[in-house]
Amino acid sequence: MESSLHHQDAPRTADEARRRIESLLDEVADLSDLAIAPDVFFGQVLDRVTFATSAIGAAVWTKSPNGHLLLAHQTDLQQCYPTGQAAKALSDDEAHLFQIFNRREADIVPGSQTVQPKYDIVAVPLQVAGEAWGVMALYQPANLAKSVRQTYLRITHAFAEVAQHYQQQALLRDFQQHQYDWKRQLDFASLVHTDLSYDKTAYRIANEARNCLEADRVAVLSARGSKCRIEAISGVDKPHRRSNTVQKLEKLASAVVGSKQTLLYTGETENLPPQIEEALLEYLEETPSKVLAIVPLQVSNPIDDDDEKKPLRASEPVGAIAIESIEQLNGHELLHRAEPIIQHATTALGNARAYRQLPFASVLIPLRNGLATIGWYRLPTTLKVVIPLLVIIAALFLIPMDFSIEVHGQLVPAVERNVFAPSDGYVEEIFVKHGQPVEKAAPLMQLRSNEFNLQRAEIVGQLQTAQAELDAILVKRSQGMRRDPRAENRTPESFENLSADQLKLTKQIENLIQRRDLLQKREDELKLLSPINGQVLDWEVEQVLAARPVSRGELLMKVADIDGPWVLDLELPDKRTYHVVNAQNQSKEPLAVRFQLVNEPGKTYRGELKSAASIVDLDENSEEPFVPLEAEIDKSEIPHLRHGLSVVGRIECGQRSVAYVWTYQLVETVRRYLFW
Questions:
Q1: Which pLDDT tens digit goes with each residue over 534-560?
Q2: What is the pLDDT of residues 20-33, one digit of tens each?
Q3: Which keywords, in A-to-Z order, does the entry hold (predicted)?
């Protein structure tokens, strides 16, 4: 645009010059309504006013915070402020223009006397809403005609009005933006303080902060010791904690929070601590962000509880906020806009964390609100004590609760057989070992009895003697028959005696043979056979039973069918029998039993009470009477079944009031010892 102005032909008539100036004013007037940067707008204005007046140059001086005028925008002022003399010339001109600024009246003042050739400055104060904010200065050669100077003053004043209109529009846009930002910040504060749920608060902070700051991504992290953990990411329902981006952001935030300094990255990583720089570079490999700000959230707590203004002390950080943008924004301006957002986020997150750390907060807060609704806090102190006690007592007697009786027991196969010694003797040979599967009638061990050997020898001896005597009688009778039957020495009595002896010996031999067979049967029984198909349960059979003397009826071995069903053998204390019997009588279904294995605490299994013994047994260890019970279980639910595995169970006896369940043992004890 500047080159096109310089190449335009000079106006030949006053009307053409006026139209040219009006055209330039229309152009800058159109620009003044646009939301363009001040550098661009004032550059265009100064170029046009310089061209319209054939001036040396032009400038806009603005008021600085310290009250002086600063050269903010300028064009073609190399001649007026040459190198080496610029400082002195600027100081002189600032003094002259400051007077115009204070008087708020347009005027023509001489330029600095240190620069040759001489120049004058056509100065017009710039005001908005009655307050001066700068001066538009037009640099013209000195000694121009008064009429020309007045013409240039009017032209400069016209362009100054356009500049004032631009500034007014800019201030209006800033005000509207500030009003818009303020409303969004108010909405943000209202949303993040809605409740004290930590997760919901973090989620709202992340998403609402992103909308307020118009950033691409905002993450909220909580501080846990020296580590940070991402609680929420804008636009994401739940962060994926295993992703590299999340893990590296947590590492970077941990380093920033540890330093307690805000990190602002806009493309440069210089002057950063090594641990932060390393973590930042690792994170930038995972994200295309060009602007990154991580601000620690630190709540300030009062030192004391005096009613006066309380001094504040820094506490441990409650977390951090990470703000990212993939566009190249002004990082410092972003942080400035984020200040109120961060303040509200710090307070909301700190309150949510404090609430989460309160014991029983999730119960007490709703209770407090409910009591306030019914007017509890207006009641007398006595009623505030009596009513809760009555409510608690009533609840104890009215609220039902599961009632169960504790029992102890062990897991065993349903089919289990004991192997006993049939006679006195000793173990000669063992054919099985622990855990060995056996079939029915399979040999388990061989016993030997010295008594049987003696009996066998005695019987054999008696049998041989009787047989010899019988043979002798048979010989005598045979010889007597071959003699003369009419011999004088053959009497009926002798013949009858031989017959009687023969009959007696025959009977004796039969008895001895029966005794021998019975003894043989008992000897055969010394070879112990498995009564069922199953598995040997005894441990270290060879070491325990080898060559061991045994007595008749002594338990030697156990065989159980581990592939069949299993049951739960329980011992119910006799003093608790009444509760189980009463519950069983009231229930049409078998009572449920829940139990835990002693080697697997925390995992509960279930079964059903199958039968109860009609006797009371005595525990050998505690000498406490108990009633044996048997419960059915599903063995498929229990891994690694082992015979005799101890369990702790509870027999479910229906429901009773809370007071009964909690106090029945105490009541029974008191009755037993005080009212018996």
A1: 888 888 888 888 888 888 888 888 889
A2: 888 888 888 898 88
A3: Coiled coil, Transport
Show the tokens assigned to 465: 């003697």
- Residue recorded with tokens 């005794």: 515
Q: Is the pLDDT of residue 308 over 60?
A: no
Neighbours of 228 (CB within 10 A): 27
What's the length of the chain? 676
- Distance CA(483)–CA(39), nearest Å, equals 170
Select from 80, 121, 120, 74 the least CA-distant residue to 101: 121
pLDDT tens per residue, range 221-234: 999 888 999 999 99
Query: How far is Cα 455 from Cα 512, in angstroms, rounded to an integer?
Result: 11
Local structure of residue 139 (DSSP, 8 states): E
Over the stretch 507-540, which tens digit does the pLDDT of each residue have? 877 887 888 878 778 777 788 888 888 888 888 8
From residue 578, how far is each of 405, 573, 612 by CA, in Å? 11, 10, 12
Are 587 and 467 within 8 A, CB to CB?
A: no
What is the distance between the alpha carbons of residues 66 and 147, in angstroms, rounded to a whole number? 37
- How high is the pLDDT of residue 312? 44
* Angstrom distance (rounded) from CA 489 to CA 475: 17
| Gap between the Cα atoms of 71 and 60, Å rounded | 6
Task: Say which DSSP state 282 is in.
Answer: H
Nearest to 169 by CA among 28, 329, 1: 28
pLDDT at 2 over 50: no
Mean pLDDT of the chain: 85
CA dist 467 to 479, 496, 513, Å? 18, 19, 11
What single-letter amino acid sits at 582?
N
What is the spatial distance between Cα 360 and Cα 362, in angstroms, rounded to a whole number? 6
Tokens 């004890």 belong to residue = 669
The predicted-structure confidence for 108-161, as pLDDT tens digits, reads as follows: 999 988 888 889 999 999 998 888 899 999 999 988 898 898 999 999 999 999
Residue 5, pLDDT > 80, answer no
> Hunting for tokens 């007398």 — which residue is that?
380
Contact present, 438 and 541 (Cβ < 8 Å): no
Between CA 208 and CA 214 the distance in angstroms is 10
- To the question of pTM greater than 0.70 for the whole model, the response is no
**What does the pLDDT look like over 51-84, one tens digit per residue?**
888 899 999 999 988 888 999 999 989 888 988 8
Hey, CA dihedral for 486, 487, 492, 497, is it positive or negative? Answer: negative
**Residue 579, C-beta contacts closer than 8 angstroms, at least 6 positions apart:** 403, 405, 653, 664
Q: In which band, very low, low, confident or very high, does the pLDDT at 302 lie, cut at 50, 70 and 90?
A: low
Question: DSSP per residue over 164-214, as a string?
Answer: HHHHHHHHHHHHHHHHHHHHHHHHHHHHHTS---HHHHHHHHHHHHHHHHT
Quote the pLDDT of residue 73.
92
Q: Which among 320, 186, 169 is positioned nearest to 254, based on CA atoms?
A: 320
Sketch out the chain's domains with CATH numbers: 2-176 (3.30.450.40), 193-303+311-362 (3.30.450.40), 416-556 (no CATH), 565-674 (2.40.30.170)
Q: Which of 272, 274, 278, 264 is nearest to 342 (CA)?
A: 264
8 Å CB contact between 587 and 599: no
Query: What distance, in Å, lies between the first and last C-alpha atoms of the chain?
Result: 115
DSSP characters over 373-411? HTTGGGS-HHHHHHHHHHHHHHHHHHSEEEEEEEEEEEE
Identity of residue 237: D
Residue 302 forms beta bridges with which residues?
Answer: 312
Q: What is the pLDDT of residue 40?
A: 92
Rounded to whole angstroms, how far apart are CA atoms 73 and 160? 13
CB contact burial 166-175 (16+ within 10 A = b; e otherwise): bbebbeeeee
Q: How far is CA 643 from CA 465, 480, 598, 617, 639, in A?
A: 55, 75, 13, 21, 13
d(CA 411, CA 3): 102
